[in-house]
Each structure stands twice: as structure tokens, then as C-alpha cells.
């Protein structure tokens, strides 16, 4: 037996009118409606917030992926440049031209065994 029925049953023996029962029933229904409406609003605002956060994080992820790709391309270019600057022919040319070094004759070479 719910509270409105109990209230009405008590009122039958006492002096409670139907309008008082209806007022009490409507106040309970309206309080449940307010609670339900508040829960729906909190749920809707939570959904909006989570959607916003998800989109923000997705944009940040995409920006990081683009930056990673640019850095990968730059790293590959640096590796190519390093390979170009450190070739044996270039090092030998620089040693002969800028430093005045020459390749020793056959009798001037000494091989050390370690």
C-alpha cells in the first residue's frame, strides 16, 4: 500500500477529504518528476562535456600525429645528410685539400696487429 492510499485510508476514518489526498499524491509525483528531470539534465550535460572532451583529445591526437610525421621526414633527411657528409671520398678530399694530408707510399704504411 503506497503512502497516498494509506493517507486516504486514514482519512476515511478521520476527516481527510479527497482533495487533500490528491494534493498529497500530486506533491509526491511532482517531487519524483523534479528528481527525474534533474537526473536527465545532469545526464545531458555530462554527455555534452564528454563529447567535447573526446573531440578535443581527438584533435590533439591528430596534431601530434602530424608533428610525428614531420619529425620522421626531418629525421630521414638528416640521416641522408649525415651519410653524404661522411662518405669516404668526401673525407679523403677534405683531408687532402683543406688539411694538406697525403696518402703515404706503400713503404710508409704500417699495419698493427692488436
What distinguishing features does this structure have?
0% strand, 3 helices, rod-shaped
Q: What's the shape?
A: rod-shaped
Major β-sheet profile: none
- How much of the sequence lies in strands comes to under 5%
On the 0-100 scale, what is the average pLDDT? Answer: 86
> Assembly state here?
single chain
What's the total number of strands?
0
Uncertain spans: none
| Annotation field: number of helices | 3
**Percent range of helical residues:** over 70%
User: What integer value in Å does the Rg equal?
Assistant: 43 Å
Q: Order of SSEs, N→C?
A: HHH
Distance from N terminus to C terminus (CA atoms, Å) equals 101 Å
Derived structural class: mainly alpha
Task: Please summarize what this structure is.
With 114 residues, this protein is mostly helical.
